[in-house]
């Protein structure tokens, strides 16, 4: 089962290929993605790496957490599931008759 890792404190110069190359030292990398700003394309300073197994993910955490990459000590840990940005609540504003015809 693949395991997804969060990689933080990345230098802005780190590319997807840099992440893939580094983490492939710990095992088979399924994907490696640096998160970028949609408008500017600039790195946001973090990314995600998906390893082929949980054992390889654990090895990568032990090997690379607090290690140096492009002049910065990176942080590596298991990625947490993404939460909804809307919080899952009803966003209608509480208007009881919204959507009904008022004629």
Structure description:
By secondary structure, the chain is of the alpha+beta class. Helix content is 18%, strand content 30%. The strands form two sheets. A four-stranded antiparallel β-sheet has the order 2-3-1-6. The termini are far apart.
Q: What are the defining features of this structure?
A:
2 helices, two-stranded antiparallel ribbon, 30% strand, globular, 103 residues, alpha+beta
**Terminal Cα separation, in Å?**
57 Å
Low-pLDDT ranges: none
Shape annotation: globular
Radius of gyration: 19 Å
User: Overall pLDDT, averaged?
Assistant: 88
Order of adjacent strands in the largest pleated sheet: 2-3-1-6
In percent terms, what proportion of residues is strand?
25-35%
**Main β sheet profile:** 4 strands, antiparallel
Structural class category: alpha+beta
- Share of helix, binned: 10-25%
Order of helices and strands: EHEEHEEE
Enumerate how many helices there are, as a single number. 2
**Total number of beta strands:** 6
């Amino acid at each position: 089962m693949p395991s997804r890792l969060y990689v933080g404190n990345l230098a802005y110069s780190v590319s997807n290929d840099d992440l893939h190359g580094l983490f492939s030292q710990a095992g088979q990398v399924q994907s490696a993605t640096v998160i970028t700003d949609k408008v500017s394309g600039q790195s946001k300073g973090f990314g995600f790496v998906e390893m082929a197994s949980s054992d390889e993910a654990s090895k990568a955490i032990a090997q690379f957490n607090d290690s140096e990459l492009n002049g910065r000590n990176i942080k590596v840990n298991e990625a947490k599931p993404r939460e909804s940005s809307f919080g899952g609540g009803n966003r209608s504003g509480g208007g009881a008759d919204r959507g009904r015809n008022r004629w």
